[in-house]
Amino acid sequence: MEDKICLGCLAANKKLRNNYCSKCIKELFNGNVPNPLNFDRIEFTKKRAELSPRMSISGVQDKISLTFEKKDLIPTASNGKYILKPITNGDGHIQNEKDIVANEHLSMLISKSIFKIPTASCGLIRFSDGELAYITKRFDYDEETNLKYDQEDFAGIMGITPVTHGENYKYDACSYLDCAKMIKQHVATSIVSQEDFFKRIILNYLICNGDAHLKNFSLYSKADSNEYFLTPSYDLLNTRFHINEKYGDMAIDLLDDYTETYEAYGYYTYDDFKTFAKYIDLPEIRFNKIIKFIEDSYLEVKDLIDKSFLSPKAKEFYKESYKDRMKRLRIK
Ligand SMILES: [Zn+2]
């Protein structure tokens, strides 16, 4: 099956090879042109069960590790450089599960191509029966030496565990402001990283990702260095389309205390993000620039949503919810 748009970047392109443009073949697949997967979702589930005791990828969503064998990406228990996530079987907790793959792909692309936030390389790939799955390239190792980077998520960095903070530890233990303080403490290029982190938080708000919890942010250092950086973003999703969230708009509180406007409205607005920016020493001119950028880039976001593989209903929801969040930020 040949699509008319690239399954990596969603650009319309006539010269696709196995559904990918040359840029995506280079960036996502290191120059290999992958065949469609030679197994389907049923076989995926079987393989996952076989491999899972030895798998080291954390998280609850069904996923397996893949590695290239010539032009085929095949499941592997160790040293896989790709992670494959199909649509979930839906155990009753998730709505609209058929859109979850396209949702993650779109959300990651908004982050990467429009907001220019460092973001894991990703794309869509077809199972043997044509169904789409989400594929992402691992970023926690050196592509030349194969050495694994030293990586730690924010729960680990802060020593926050179920034992110290209870079962909701990923959500309840601290604020995004505390995370920003950690970045200031550990990242050498902290002025750049603070702005990067601010953009990530405001983007999660715009795309209604209510699951940007402590384990979805990490720092890493390259093999031959003691300098830490924020890893590329991963696991971005408009969760609101799939779950009726009961814990509010964001996975983690933005600030240590609620502002007067938050108390008045019951949700985050322009004032909260402005306060957040002030507390992390983001210059006002940079803050204003980011707000202006969000306003200016909406048409591009809308265009990408329209090009995505979401269902018509999901596209409408994504646009509406994004616009709604812009309104809360006083952006037209
Ligand atoms: Zn492409």
From TrEMBL:
It comes from Poseidonibacter parvus. Residues 55-294 form the HipA-like C-terminal domain. The keyword Translocase does not apply. Transmembrane segments: none annotated. Gene3D superfamilies: 1.10.1070.20. Belongs to the HipA Ser/Thr kinase family. The keyword Protease does not apply. Keywords: Kinase, Transferase. GO terms for molecular function: protein serine/threonine kinase activity. GO terms for cellular component: cytosol. This is HipA-like C-terminal domain-containing protein.
